[in-house]
Design a protein that fits this description.
Number of domains: 2
CATH topology of the largest domain: Aspartate Aminotransferase, domain 2
CATH class of the largest domain: Alpha Beta
Number of helices: 15
CATH architecture of the largest domain: 3-Layer(aba) Sandwich
Strand content: 15-25%
CATH superfamily of the largest domain: Type I PLP-dependent aspartate aminotransferase-like (Major domain)
Number of strands: 14
Distance between the termini: 45 Å
Strand order of the largest sheet: 3-9-8-7-6-4-5
Largest sheet: 7 strands, mixed
Order of helices and strands: HEEHHHEHEHEHEHEHEEHHHHEEHEEEH
Radius of gyration: 21 Å
Helix content: 40-55%
Length: 395
C-alpha cells in the first residue's frame, strides 16, 4: 500500500539508528520485584519513588472510591463530571501548599501532560513571551508551541542568560517555564534564583514538579518546600502518577490564576473528568505522603541513593550524581546502551536504555530509578552487577 511506504521507510531508519522503542508486559503490580514477560525481575525503572503504587491503603481507598462513586465520571468537569471527591482533593492540594503560595487554589487534571498544556496555552498567547529551560519535558515544549507565543530557550540552568533575555524582551506577559527535577539526569533547577528574577521582572514562574512532589521537602510538598519558596508569581504543577502512586496531576496557584484556567484551559474544559475513585484514592495518598510513613520512606530513599553512589564502581561509564531518586548512568552510543540494558535484563535486572530524541545525541544512558520499597540488598545487587558488567561490555 502506497500510503504505508513512508512509514515503513521511517521505521527502517529508526532501526538503523537503534532508536525503535518497544514495550514489555508486566504481569504484577508496580514494585521492585515484578514479573515481566514471564520472567522474575528486579526493577529499577518505575517512577513510583515512595513505593505507594501498590500500597494496601491505596488499593483499599480505590476500591472504596469505586463503590461510592462508580467507575467513570460521565462527563467533563464543567458539565456533570465534577464529583465531591474531585472537590475535596482540590481543597486538600490548596491546603497542602498554602505555606508556599499566596491565596492558593488547585485544579485536578487527568494527566500531567494535560496540566502542562493547559497552563501554558491559557497563561500565554500571541502577545506573551515564554522563557523555556533547554531540558524541559516534552509536554512543556508542546505547550509552548500550542500557546503560539514567542518562545525563548535558555541553556540548562543558565540563570545569567535568562536574566539577559528578560531584560531585553518587552512582552506584556512573561512566563518562565522549567522542570524542577530533570527527569533524565536528576538535576534540580535553580528555583530560588529563577523566582528572584521572575519577581524582579514581573514574570510568572511555572514549575513542573513531576519528579519532586511527594519526594522533596520534609513533608513531601516538593521543590517549593525543598527550597523554602513562597510567592504569588508561582504556578505549581504536581504529578500524581509518580511519588503519589495513583494517576493525574494538579495545578496550584493564586485563586485568580486557577479561575482563569477553569475558564480558558481547553484540555481541561473539553476532556472527560478522571474517575472520582482515583481522586478518592489520592486523598489517602496525601495522608501517606504528609504523615510519618511518608517521612520514613523519604529517609530510606535517601539512604539508598547514598548507598548506590558509594558502591557503584564505573570506569568509562559515568554515574550522574543526583540528590534525587533518578540516578542515570551515561554510556554514550545507542548500541552500547542497548547492549548494557539487554545484559542487565539477562541477569534479572530491568533498567531501560534511554536514547535520543529523549536526550541529546551520544548521551544514551541507563536511567536508574530508586524506590523507597527497594532494600539495601536490592541496591547492592544492582551495584555489584552493573560494576561487573561494564568491563565486559567494553571488552
Amino acid at each position: 500500500m502506497e500510503l504505508l511506504a513512508p512509514l515503513e521507510h521511517g521505521l527502517r531508519q529508526l532501526d538503523e539508528k537503534r532508536l525503535r522503542r518497544s514495550r514489555r508486559i508486566a504481569y504484577t503490580p508496580c514494585a521492585p520485584h515484578v514479573t515481566v514477560d514471564d520472567r522474575h525481575m528486579l526493577a529499577f525503572c518505575s517512577n513510583d519513588y515512595l513505593g505507594l503504587a501498590a500500597h494496601p491503603r491505596l488499593v483499599e481507598a480505590l476500591r472504596e472510591g469505586a463503590a461510592r462513586y462508580g467507575v467513570g465520571s460521565g462527563g467533563s468537569h464543567l458539565i456533570s463530571g465534577h464529583s465531591r471527591a474531585h472537590a475535596l482533593l482540590e481543597e486538600r492540594f490548596a491546603e497542602f501548599l498554602a505555606t508556599f503560595l499566596e491565596a492558593p487554589r488547585a485544579l485536578y487534571f487527568c494527566t500531567g501532560y494535560m496540566a502542562n498544556l493547559s497552563v501554558l496555552t491559557a497563561l500565554a498567547g500571541p502577545d506573551a513571551e515564554l522563557f523555556c529551560e533547554e531540558l524541559n519535558h516534552a509536554s512543556l515544549i508542546d505547550g509552548a508551541r500550542l500557546a503560539r507565543a514567542n518562545v525563548q530557550v535558555y541553556a540548562h540552568g543558565d540563570v545569567d542568560q535568562l536574566e539577559r533575555l528578560l531584560q531585553v524582551r518587552g512582552a506584556k506577559t512573561k512566563v518562565v517555564v522549567t522542570d524542577s527535577v530533570f527527569s533524565m539526569d536528576g538535576h534540580l533547577a535553580p528555583l530560588p534564583q529563577l523566582l528572584e528574577l521572575c519577581e524582579r521582572y514581573g514574570a510568572w514562574l511555572v514549575v513542573d514538579d513531576a519528579h519532586g512532589f511527594g519526594v522533596l521537602g520534609a513533608h513531601g510538598c516538593g521543590a517549593l518546600e525543598h527550597f523554602n519558596l513562597r510567592s504569588s508569581n508561582l504556578v505549581y504543577i504536581g504529578t500524581l502518577g509518580k511519588a503519589a502512586g495513583v494517576s493525574g496531576a494538579f495545578v496550584a496557584a493564586h485563586g485568580t490564576v486557577i479561575e482563569w484556567l477553569l475558564q480558558r484551559a481547553r484540555p481541561y474544559i473539553y476532556s472527560t473528568a478522571a474517575p472520582p475513585a482515583l481522586a478518592h484514592a489520592l486523598l489517602t495518598s496525601l495522608d501517606l505522603i504528609s504523615g510519618e510513613e511518608g517521612s520514613q520512606r523519604r529517609a530510606h530513599l535517601q539512604h539508598l541513593i547514598a548507598q548506590l553512589q558509594a558502591t557503584l564502581r564505573l570506569r568509562s561509564w559515568k554515574l550522574l550524581l543526583s540528590p534525587t531518586a533518578i540516578q542515570p548512568v551515561i554510556i554514550g552510543s545507542n548500541e552500547e546502551a542497548l547492549g548494557a540494558a539487554a545484559a542487565l535484563y539477562d541477569r534479572g535486572i530491568w533498567i531501560p536504555a534511554i536514547r535520543p530524541p529523549t536526550i541529546p545525541a551520544n548521551t544514551a544512558r541507563l536511567r536508574i530509578t530508586l524506590s523507597a520499597v527497594h532494600t539495601a540488598a536490592d541496591v547492592a545487587q544492582l551495584a555489584d552487577t552493573l560494576s561487573a558488567l561494564e568491563p565486559l561490555a567494553n571488552g
